Amino acid sequence: MDACYQAFDKDGDGYLNIDEFKLLTRALFRNDRGKLYLLEEEKLKDIFNLFDVNGDGHIDKDEFIFCWNHWIKIIIRPISAFLIVDVQNDFISGTLNISNCSAQQNGADVIEPINKLLDTVKFDAVFYSLDWHPSDHVSFIENIRDRELDPSSPITADNAQTYDTVIFAGSPPQKQRLWPRHCVQDTWGSELHKDLKIVESATKVYKGTNPDVDSYSVFWDNKKMTDTTLCAQLRMKNATDIYICGLAYDVCVGEEPQLLML
């Protein structure tokens, strides 16, 4: 950090002015072939002003320390995490085989590209998420009579079919899509597919363990009542870049970017 600060303090006055800061960004924003990605002047000024906390037109040493730790170091030393979502038997050939859902795609098709990424990219951390439901889970259509439906539910227990959405009684009432029984804890259907590469140092994160609340995301349950350990683990590893893939894109995978933005 000190060497960087001194190298770009061209006039040796102990501060970085905007022209010196511009030279620094030119060094940062280039690819491995040396191609520059230039910042527009307005964007450059916005970034400079963000770190020029006291607004004196210079970035002093203390301001640069913040700039280094929260921006430069992240750019030059990114920490990548690979999140592999729910590549489990039940979603590929079991009770909730996605080839029978609206997308009509073969869930096994994700395995080869995931394995190739694991073989060719050196991720700093790898996480596998697993749907991990108790047998009395609220999302299973077989369990619909175990809980009281709210009077506002458009569908009754007698008329309910798989993939319908009902409303269970509660405060507030709870909307719930009904699925076939799937990924029940410690069953074949909940296991990761045998052809999926499992990294020894990886971490498994379990979701949907509360029988009364569904959980599509590996970060939070659907009601945002409780989180998993994933957020804390990503922070512990100082992860800067998170890559997400798995099953199924329109449900569990699709939830993750939304939760990250929150």
UniProtKB/TrEMBL annotation:
Task: Give an example GO biological process.
Answer: pyridine nucleotide biosynthetic process
Say which enzyme class the record assigns.
hydrolase
- Pathway as given in its UniProt record: Cofactor biosynthesis; nicotinate biosynthesis; nicotinate from nicotinamide: step 1/1
**What are the TM regions of this chain, as residue ranges?**
none
Q: Name one GO molecular function term.
A: metal ion binding
Pfam families, sorted: EF-hand_7, Isochorismatase
According to its UniProt record, the EC number is 3.5.1.19
Q: Supply the alphabetized keyword list.
A: Calcium, Hydrolase, Metal-binding, Pyridine nucleotide biosynthesis
- Give the matching SMART domains: EFh
Which InterPro entries is this protein grouped with?
EF-hand-dom_pair (IPR011992), EF_Hand_1_Ca_BS (IPR018247), EF_hand_dom (IPR002048), Isochorismatase-like_dom (IPR000868), Isochorismatase-like_sf (IPR036380), Isochorismatase_Nicotinamidase (IPR052347)
As for family, the record states: Belongs to the isochorismatase family.
PANTHER family in UniProt: LD05707P, PYRAZINAMIDASE/NICOTINAMIDASE
- Annotated protein name in UniProt: nicotinamidase
Its ancestry begins with: Eukaryota, Metazoa, Ecdysozoa, Arthropoda, Hexapoda
